[in-house]
Amino acid sequence: MHLTLINLFKKTVPGHIFRGKRRLVKPVSQRAMDTLTREYERQEQVMLLLRNPYLTLEQSAGHAKELQKREKLVAKWTQEQTLSKMKPHVTIEERLNQLKIKEAWD
């Protein structure tokens, strides 16, 4: 009974508590500020790595040729390999061939 009365007369925000004119706004804590600061520092480190590439343009030109990635990719999609994975074509005549007993009409 007492819990019901407390819940009934509790002063809360009308409607959805995080939307609208009378919404409940969470106060900014020090932990949230520290988390945001760490996130910005991490993004800055990533941007620094992206701005300064590991290889120069001369070094990066043609470095994948030795790995032969393109040739392996093309070899993977050859006609023989794709046909070997597929089932052979079956016609209706081959399906209904078992119904043939004799050719002559009686």
Automatic annotation (TrEMBL):
Give the CC-aspect GO terms.
mitochondrial ribosome
Recall the GO molecular function terms of this protein's record.
Answer: structural constituent of ribosome
One Pfam annotation reads MRP-63
**GO terms under biological process:** mitochondrial translation
* Protein name as annotated: Ribosomal protein 63, mitochondrial
Q: Give the organism the record lists.
A: Drosophila gunungcola
Query: Lineage in the entry?
Result: Eukaryota, Metazoa, Ecdysozoa, Arthropoda, Hexapoda
